[in-house]
């Protein structure tokens, strides 16, 4: 299998002995587990719930990790072990496999070299449950920065599609069959239309989940080498995938929908320190480019408004619970920032931002979020932060 080739190839190139052993063990477990529990091809299509007495289950959410050698070699393995100690139906990483810029002299991959994706593949296949992910700006749109190796961002996304999304199955030791956006709607490095295979959808016990390739750095409209053509094609694909997800949820009488993407698009004017700001009624972005951007000074190109307008319409029409999970701005929170055109809060919408980054303080934010899911309950989702005991930094374990 392609996955096994990437994993094994990467194991021979890492210098840190303990880290090498960790990834080697991961590869062995992944190969054995994949052959033992490869699911039936129709397991997604029919959502095989049966008549189980208990439909409730738990999932794990994480992202924006690792951002340093310490996080890569210690923090993330600790986090994975903590996830594996609990019974999870699946896990999802919401993007960013590394920090925004490479670290000179690092022992682990911190640029957008192939080794970065090998490292990440080892992490995902170390997870006992199914492991899903969506790409992050730090691992493709920002790869054109000199500090990241000056790669073509489109080529790096093409590479991610080959490494992580080469089949309709998830990663992890218990792969799940997923629905894939196979329509040729995105632009590849050859400027040809290609399938947006990173956009995935699956259903479990009455809840529909979907990933969306939506990125920080203005969704590829700012930073080192903006790419309006790539953005326009992918944005249309994302909007369509989101709308089709709601259509499927309605057709299958789902009780809730959860989306997972990387970017914090900004929902209102409340937090200019961490996210884009926008008029919460019109959803028009109203902030300016940072001084670090090559196009400074000027207004920030809005890579999110059209998607947010379409999402708002669908959330209102669906009426049932909708959770929107993202990373990007590195601040764990669960709130309800989405307003309608009259300024009224959308009561059925919950924004979830996962832990991540804080590389200056080691493993201080290398934690994850456990979500309990029960489609028979009114709100469907309930949330429990998981502070990994071995990663506690400021306050030691009791």
Tags for this model:
398 residues, alpha/beta, 15 strands, globular
Description:
The structure is a single chain. This protein is of the alpha/beta class and about 400 residues long. It is built from nine helices and 15 strands. The strands form three sheets. A seven-stranded mixed β-sheet has the order 5-8-9-10-11-13-12, with helices on one face. A six-stranded mixed β-sheet has the order 4-3-2-1-14-15, covered by helices on one side. Helix 1 crosses helix 5 (about 115-125). It is globular and about 50 Å long. The relative contact order is 0.14. Mean pLDDT is about 90; it is low at about 1-15, about 25-45 and about 50.
In short:
By secondary structure, this protein is an alpha/beta fold. The chain is built from 9 helices and 15 strands.
Using DSSP, what is the number of strands?
15
Task: List the helices and strands in order.
Answer: HHHEHEHEHEEEEEEHHEHEEEEE
The radius of gyration computed from the alpha-carbon positions, rounded to a whole number of angstroms, is 20 Å
Overall geometry: globular
Question: Total helix count?
Answer: 9
Structural class, judged by helices and strands?
Answer: alpha/beta
Low-confidence stretches: 1-17, 26-46, 48-52
Compute the average pLDDT: 89
Major sheet attributes: 7 strands, mixed
- The share of residues in extended strands comes to 15-25%
Distance between the termini: 45 Å
**Helix proportion:** 25-40%
